[in-house]
């Protein structure tokens, strides 16, 4: 945690001409959760604007956008809110609207609002009409409850396999640096082909869906993403399957 903060502090200090920083709150490869609130405050002191990508954190954890402190935030609404693919949102702090040039086609009242800053083309209205129901369900369950459930499921399988000598859990154990998503790598299995094979074995032999991810230091990996409807029994079966695969 402290190392991440030091990394960003050093990067900003060594690059004084930087004026815009893009942060991904929770990464899609390993589920690493970056301390965006602290980094945003750090950047603000150095007159650096921050755009925060909360595609994988909004709905996975209970977050307050205002608390993050960023003036610009991008949302995905199908990953953890449960709306159909294609739904998203953007936040621009009201005081910063004037700093963003309006879309050339914007006119009249649009010039004073956020929708005048983005040209989306033809909108899938059917998808947008699902949003009230998706948010209603999310709020009914409760953001803190969802986060607690996903963290519980994540920890449940990690605790059962972390003793394996040939398995590396890539996502930090520090609670401040992860939520529900976590990735692993088996010793010597660093190629995309290797990790696709593990994903296929989990699906075909054990009926467990995971996904491979590339672009991680030292090779590809397998990402495990529990959902709200994933049961503890499902997770225990996965841990058992992973232990069996690790022994082969």
Assembly type: single chain
The gross shape turns out to be globular
Overall residue-averaged pLDDT value: 95
User: Structural class, from secondary structure content?
Assistant: alpha/beta
CATH fold-level assignment of the largest domain: Aspartate Aminotransferase, domain 2
Largest sheet: 4 strands, mixed
**Biggest sheet, strands in spatial order?**
1-2-3-4
Alpha-carbon Rg, integer: 20 Å
- Which CATH architecture of the largest domain? 3-Layer(aba) Sandwich
User: Count of helices?
Assistant: 8
For the terminal residues, how far apart are their CA atoms? 35 Å
- Determine the CATH superfamily of the largest domain: Type I PLP-dependent aspartate aminotransferase-like (Major domain)
The helix/strand series, from N terminus to C terminus, equals: HEHEHEEHHHEEHEEH
Number of strands: 8
How many domains? The number is 2
Helix content: 25-40%
- Name the beta content range: 5-15%
Keywords: Pyridoxal phosphate, Transferase
InterPro entries: Aminotrans_V_dom, PyrdxlP-dep_Trfase, PyrdxlP-dep_Trfase_major, PyrdxlP-dep_Trfase_small
EC number: 2.8.1.7
GO molecular function: cysteine desulfurase activity
How would you summarize this macromolecular structure in one to three sentences?
InterPro entries: Aminotrans_V_dom, PyrdxlP-dep_Trfase, PyrdxlP-dep_Trfase_major, PyrdxlP-dep_Trfase_small. The chain is an alpha/beta fold and 248 residues long. The protein contains eight helices and eight strands.
């Amino acid at each position: 945690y402290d190392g991440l903060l030091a990394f960003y502090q050093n990067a900003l200090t060594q690059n004084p001409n930087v004026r815009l920083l893009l942060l991904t709150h929770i990464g899609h490869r390993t589920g690493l959760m970056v301390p965006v609130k602290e980094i945003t405050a750090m950047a603000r002191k150095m007159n650096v604007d921050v755009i925060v990508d909360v595609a994988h954190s909004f709905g996975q954890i209970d977050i307050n956008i205002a608390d993050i402190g960023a003036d610009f935030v991008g949302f995905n609404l199908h990953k953890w809110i449960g709306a159909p693919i294609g739904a998203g949102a953007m936040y621009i702090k009201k005081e910063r609207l004037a700093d963003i040039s309006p879309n050339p086609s914007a006119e009249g009242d649009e010039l004073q609002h956020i929708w005048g800053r983005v040209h989306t083309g033809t909108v899938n209205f059917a998808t947008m009409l699902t949003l009230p129901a998706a948010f209603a369900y999310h709020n009914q369950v409760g953001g803190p409850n969802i986060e607690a459930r996903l963290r519980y499921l994540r920890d449940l399988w990690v605790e059962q396999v972390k003793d394996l000598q040939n398995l590396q859990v890539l996502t930090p154990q520090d609670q401040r640096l992860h939520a529900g998503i976590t990735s692993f790598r088996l010793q010597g299995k660093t190629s995309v082909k290797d990790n696709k094979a593990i994903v296929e074995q989990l699906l075909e032999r054990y009926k467990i869906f995971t996904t491979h991810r590339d672009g991680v230091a030292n090779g590809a990996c397998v990402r495990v993403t529990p959902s709200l409807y994933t049961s503890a029994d499902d997770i225990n079966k996965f841990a058992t399957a992973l232990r069996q695969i690790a022994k082969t």
